[in-house]
Design a protein that fits this description.
Structural class: alpha/beta
Largest sheet: 7 strands, mixed
CATH class: Alpha Beta
Order of helices and strands: HEEHEHEHEHEHEHH
Distance between the termini: 42 Å
GO cellular component, one term: plasma membrane
Protein name: 1-acyl-sn-glycerol-3-phosphate acyltransferases
Organism: Demequina mangrovi
Strand order of the largest sheet: 1-7-6-2-5-3-4
Oligomer: single chain
GO molecular function: 1-acylglycerol-3-phosphate O-acyltransferase activity
Radius of gyration: 17 Å
Keywords: Acyltransferase, Transferase
C-alpha cells in the first residue's frame, strides 16, 4: 500500500500549492495515465530549478505525493533542506561511496506502492534550445529491476517562472505551465533479462524518445535529430 503523506507534508504542501496557483496557470493533461494500483516512476524533462515544484504540483494535486531524488547538498541548504527533509525526499550522494543509497531508498518506496519522480538527465538541460538531453541510465535500471511502470510527464513553461540557472522568480504576470502525462513507456520486452549496458541504454533511449516527442508536441516544434550529449560534448554551454 502507498505510504500516506505525513502531517508535515500535507501542511507544508498547502502554502506551496497556494503560491504556485497564484504565480501560474495550469495547462494540465493526462492525469488518467498515472497508475492508481501500483508504484511507478514519473520521469520529466528538466528546464529550470522550478521544475521539481511544477512537477510536484501536478502529481500532488492528482493524488500522488511525489518523492524526488535531489542532490545531497540541497538537504544542507537553509530552509530548502528543511523542506526536503520534511517532505521525505531522497538525497543523492553523487560521486561518493554512498551514491547507491538513493537507489536503494527509491526501490524500497516503489516496492511498497509509492511513486518516485525523477529527471533522467540528472541536471538542467544544456541544450541551447531547452530540448531534453541524452539521459543517464538510472531510471531504466530502477524500472527494470522493480518491474514498475515508467510514466513520462513532459512539461513546458517553468523556465519562464525561473530562468535556467537563474535565482530570481518572475511570478508576474502569471506563467502558463503545461504538464502532460502520457501512457507508460513500453519496456516489457526488456524486463526479466540481464541489466547489461545495451539493455539499459535501449530502455533509457525509449524513455527519452517518448519524453522528447511529448515536449515537441507541446511546443509545436521539431526537436534535434540527436539529443545534446554532455558526455560527448563536455559540459556544454548553459541553456539560455
Amino acid at each position: 500500500m502507498p505510504t500516506p503523506p505525513s502531517r508535515f507534508y500535507r501542511n507544508a504542501a498547502r502554502p506551496l500549492q497556494a503560491l504556485l496557483t497564484s504565480a501560474t496557470r495550469k495547462d494540465w493533461h493526462g492525469a488518467e495515465h498515472l497508475p492508481k494500483d501500483t508504484g511507478f516512476i514519473a520521469v520529466s524533462n528538466h528546464l529550470s530549478y522550478a521544475d521539481p515544484l511544477t512537477l510536484a504540483h501536478f502529481l500532488y494535486n492528482n493524488g500522488h505525493p511525489p518523492r524526488i531524488l535531489a542532490k545531497e547538498s540541497l538537504f544542507r541548504a537553509p530552509f530548502i533542506g528543511w523542506l526536503l527533509r520534511g517532505f521525505d525526499q531522497i538525497p543523492v550522494h553523487r560521486g561518493t561511496s554512498r551514491a547507491a543509497e538513493a537507489v536503494d531508498a527509491a526501490v524500497e518506496y516503489l516496492e511498497r506502492g509509492d511513486m518516485i519522480a525523477m529527471f533522467p538527465e540528472g541536471t538542467l538541460t544544456r541544450d541551447p534550445d531547452l530540448w531534453p538531453m541524452a539521459a543517464r541510465t538510472g531510471v531504466a535500471r530502477m524500472a527494470l529491476s522493480t518491474g514498475v511502470p515508467v510514466v513520462p510527464v513532459a512539461q513546458w513553461g517553468a523556465h519562464r517562472l525561473l530562468p535556467p540557472y537563474g535565482k530570481m522568480i518572475h511570478p508576474i504576470p502569471r506563467k502558463t505551465i503545461t504538464v502532460v502525462a502520457g501512457p507508460p513507456v513500453d519496456l516489457d520486452d526488456l524486463r526479466g533479462g540481464d541489466l547489461d549496458t545495451a539493455t539499459l541504454r535501449e530502455a533509457t533511449d525509449r524513455i527519452m524518445t517518448t519524453l522528447t516527442g511529448m515536449v515537441a508536441e507541446i511546443r509545436g516544434e521539431t526537436p534535434p535529430e540527436k539529443p545534446f550529449d554532455m558526455r560527448a560534448s563536455g559540459e556544454g554551454r548553459p541553456a539560455r
